[in-house]
Amino acid sequence: MSLKTNFLPALLLAVMPTVAMAEAVAPDDVVFEDDVIVASLTGADGNAVNGRKVFANRKQGNCLACHINADLKEQLFHGEVGPPLDGVADRWEEPELRAIIVNSKIVLGDETIMPSFYRLKNGARTAEKFQGKTILSAEQVEDVIAYLRTLKE
């Protein structure tokens, strides 16, 4: 085989975009269509195992501060402000869940106390060190969605 024959496949692999190499959609570039977000923020499916960890982590998703979730019964202090998330995958489709997590205000209304996890502006009471930053990364949002999709009745 010639150098040219060996080089071409390697070059194609190096320059061809892949899902793993896809860049995340920036928070200001997320597209809502009829109050849902159809496309993954990362171009790939999330990881439900990682999503469960983010969901339960008090310094990341902190979802248990407001929601009851029987799947995480080993965690203490489930909140009751938001609806229980048992069976959430039976009530909401993936594009709806993505929209709620990314920017809850668009889906649930401006008065909701649920934070928008992938938005640069998060309200008047946001600590200065968090202003202009998202609560979760695009990958973490997709991971939480993958986890929520496992919560069926």
SSE sequence, one letter per element: HHHHHH
Total count of helical runs of at least 4 residues: 6
Biggest pleated sheet: none
Can you tell me the overall shape? globular
Output mean pLDDT.
85
Task: Return Rg in Å.
Answer: 19 Å
What do you see in this structure?
- The protein contains six helices and no strands.
- It has helices at 3-15, 48-56, 88-91, 94-102, 104-108, 138-148.
- The protein has 153 residues and is mainly alpha-helical.
Element layout with pairings:
Layout: H1 3-15, H2 48-56, H3 88-91, H4 94-102, H5 104-108, H6 138-148
Can you summarize this structure?
With 153 residues, this protein is mainly α. Helices cover 33% and strands 0% of the residues.
Keywords:
mainly alpha, 153 residues, disordered N terminus, 0% strand, single chain
